[in-house]
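*** Protein under study ***
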Amino acid sequence: MTLLAINWGDAGIQALQFILSFSIIVTLHELGHFLTARWFKCRVEKFYLFFNPWFSLWKKKIGETEYGLGWVPFGGYVKISGMIDESMDKEQMKLPPQPYEFRAKPAWQRLIIMLAGIIVNLILGFLIYAMMLWHWGEEYIPTNKMTYGIAADSLSQSIGLRSGDKIIAADGEYVDKFEKIRMNVLLNSTKSLTVDRNGEKVNITIPEDFSSKLIHFKDVGYIGLRMPFLGIDSLASDTSAAAKAGIKANDKVLSVNGKPVTYFDEFRSVVIANKKKPVNMVLLRGADTVQVTVNIPGSGMIGIANKINEKVLDSLFEVKKIDYSFGESIPAAFRKSYETLESYWLQLKLIFGGKVNLNESLGSVFSIGKMYSTTWDWFTFWERTAFFSLVLALMNLLPIPGLDGGHALFTLIEMISGRKPSDKFMEYAQMVGMVLLLGLMAYALGLDIFRMFK
């Protein structure tokens, strides 16, 4: 991939959504620190969205606090007087503590100030989920209503799954939401699947290393909902392989290289197997049969989409639709928030447990930005905002110096032991934590840049 291959229009929309989403998350996180600090009568010297090395895009002093907008969109910060943080204001720490300083406050107050940002992010994620469930409700196709079974790619087939299999149970239990099965297999928490294959029960044992293979190949769609190939909805562009071959929207593919295709996954399998080769396709165009030759590019993508929309889905599958009242959305949002946190925690355990390669799972702002939609979709935007708000809360809770969790850990030790760590120790701990975090950010950024040109 090169910079010329990037669709800059799509990338721009993703970047705008990413910046807006994280502006909301970070501002409210820092507001949690700010409000609790002011509540306990600490002086807050700065409140910034984004970082501002050397200069700020905008700043204004109101009372004792300077409010500003930095130019590096990687986060934000509040500078609380007397707190050893990323500002590393050593001169202030040499002076005797003042009543308005963070270090002069009781340990329980300092603990609340440090955890406030995490608590706000947890509340934000939960509230967004609650409002989404109340407004949009929930829609999904139950596992036992997947009429055509699953679409299994080559990696899934390597462990014994087959396209058309209908999943009956995961670890012996029926799971209503198919997406949960897919995620649990990816997170290595599901060990076996029971499928119905042409009326016969087949047990599939999932190998220990399967999740690491999925992450290595970035194969998040290793099993999916099997869909009939109803026809070509649209072409990606006038320069796509399909367009060059003369394929048109509304054509229906009857066969590829003489092999009939009924399902979209069958079509994709044949196309991918013929990368960098020409293939013969027979199309139905209105009442006529048309033959075309398509040169399959190395990416295996010829630039067409299956003719599937919401109305078609409703006619092909029994879609489960749940509408929530405001009261019902509250417990549903709690469940969704818990499942999100549990899922991400399992991902962290996989990474730090050495079951997956850190180089393959680590990403910077570029990887995060790509998780947003290439069209402005408010549902996806709010869903991603809720997800990342909860993820930020969990990450900040990790007991690493430089993060809120590291500060909280030292304060808890102080409360239990009755001994406060020295300012010098806290300075060194903060320096080590910041070096680790900045090094990790730089490494992740380097990996993403490498992937762009790979």
